[in-house]
């Protein structure tokens, strides 16, 4: 059974070294971005492994705070909607889901780039040091570390598109980046009665933690604890046939139809981060790279006693970075154009429109935000 690719990005983590190893990583990234829009990375700076543990511990500590302490940090109090949102609250950072999957079942806490570089930069509602000693330092360390990994990856993405390796990095000087901490509470035990819509598929019996959506920005890095729940639905021909095989192989319990068809699990892989591309990357790459739909189910079954925690780093480019769909330089060959398939021409990324924009404008439009520039 085919599953999501794993790519060792260590050759991208040094400033120099434009050698065969780098070219091989760029080729793997190109293939993964065309076929899946998702891939695991290993080999990021060693510093990252240490900050990952601290990150997950700090995330649990935040959500374990008493309700009143979290309410005092509510996102509704912040002009940039940073801070805490309880279960059933708004979905923060992604373009809207499709397919009527119902309300999200998750608690979230949003942080973002500080300073005044753009209307999307600003102060974070940090919990006080009395409440959570060292929390701000742990989160800030992870934020910088995730940004360094994103910059390294951006070199691979640029090479994968036939561009100068610094192409995206030069547009990530003080990027619009956000860190979203998530807790998915376990699904209530099923007494076999429920089910929505009378469907018999396992997807219908499971509780949605985060409905199907694509991310709207450039690059997403996901750290997850050891509780699974994330699934992706690749649209390219090669990966899609692997997904169909997964749906039919007994893992999902479906019969090739219903809500499970085409979905592939993206379970936690110790020491790895999961990367996915957002709508902005698909738009910028002229539709060559994928912004792939994904969804999360609340922990159930054997994992049903524990909440799932994940931390999503949405790395965009600088607010005023100019963006226009790339053309011939990406070297999209007829094979790759065929790989895209005719059926999936649009996922709302605006790839068919040729108008140039800026990263900030693109994201604000997707999120329905308006700022006076
Ligand atoms: O929690 C996860 O694994 C993914 C969350 C996600 O896709 C999002 O917040 O955009
Ligand atoms: Fe997402």
Automatic annotation (TrEMBL):
Recall the GO molecular function terms of this protein's record: dioxygenase activity; metal ion binding
User: What are the protein's UniProt keywords?
Assistant: Iron, Metal-binding, Oxidoreductase
Q: Which SUPFAM superfamilies does the protein's record reference? A: Clavaminate synthase-like (SSF51197)
Does this entry carry the keyword Lyase?
A: no
Occurrences of domain Fe2OG dioxygenase (ranges): 175-317
Region (Disordered), start-end ranges: 93-125
Q: Which Gene3D superfamilies does the UniProt entry name for this protein? A: B-lactam Antibiotic, Isopenicillin N Synthase, Chain
Q: Hey, which family's this protein in?
A: Belongs to the iron/ascorbate-dependent oxidoreductase family.
Matches recorded under PANTHER family: FI07970P-RELATED (PTHR10209:SF881), OXIDOREDUCTASE, 2OG-FE II OXYGENASE FAMILY PROTEIN (PTHR10209)
The protein depicted here goes by the name Fe2OG dioxygenase domain-containing protein
């Amino acid at each position: 059974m085919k599953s999501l690719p794993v790519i060792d990005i260590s050759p991208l983590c040094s400033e120099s070294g434009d050698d065969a190893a780098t070219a091989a990583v760029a080729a793997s990234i190109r293939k993964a971005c065309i076929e899946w829009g998702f891939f695991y990375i290993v080999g990021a700076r060693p510093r990252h492994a240490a900050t990952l543990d601290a990150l997950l511990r700090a995330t649990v500590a935040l959500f374990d705070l008493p309700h009143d302490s979290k309410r005092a940090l509510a996102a509704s109090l912040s002009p940039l909607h940073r801070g805490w949102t309880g279960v059933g609250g708004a979905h923060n950072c992604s373009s809207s889901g499709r397919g009527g999957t119902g309300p999200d079942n998750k608690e979230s806490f949003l942080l973002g780039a500080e300073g005044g570089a753009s209307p999307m930069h600003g102060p974070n509602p940090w919990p006080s040091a009395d409440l959570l000693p060292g929390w701000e330092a742990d989160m800030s360390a992870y934020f910088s570390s995730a940004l360094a990994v994103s910059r390294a990856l951006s070199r691979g993405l640029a090479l994968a598109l036939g561009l100068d390796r610094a192409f995206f990095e030069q547009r990530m000087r003080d990027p619009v980046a956000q860190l979203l901490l998530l807790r998915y509470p376990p699904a209530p035990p099923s007494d076999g009665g429920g089910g929505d819509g009378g469907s018999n598929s396992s997807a219908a019996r499971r509780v949605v933690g985060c409905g199907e959506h694509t991310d709207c920005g450039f690059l997403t890095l996901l750290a997850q604890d050891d509780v699974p729940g994330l699934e992706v639905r690749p649209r390219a021909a090669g990966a899609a046939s692997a997904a169909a095989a997964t749906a039919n192989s007994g893992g999902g319990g479906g019969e090739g139809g219903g809500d499970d068809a085409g979905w592939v699990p993206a379970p936690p892989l110790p020491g790895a981060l999961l990367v996915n591309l957002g709508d902005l990357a698909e738009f910028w790459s002229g539709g060559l790279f994928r912004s792939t739909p994904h969804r999360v189910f609340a922990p159930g079954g054997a994992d049903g006693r524990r909440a799932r925690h994940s931390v999503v780093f949405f790395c965009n480019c600088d607010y005023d970075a100019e963006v226009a769909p790339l053309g011939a330089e990406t070297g999209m060959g007829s094979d790759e154009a065929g790989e895209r398939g005719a059926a999936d021409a649009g996922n709302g990324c605006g790839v068919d429109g040729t108008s140039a924009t800026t990263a900030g404008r693109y994201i604000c439009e997707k999120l329905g935000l308006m700022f006076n520039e």
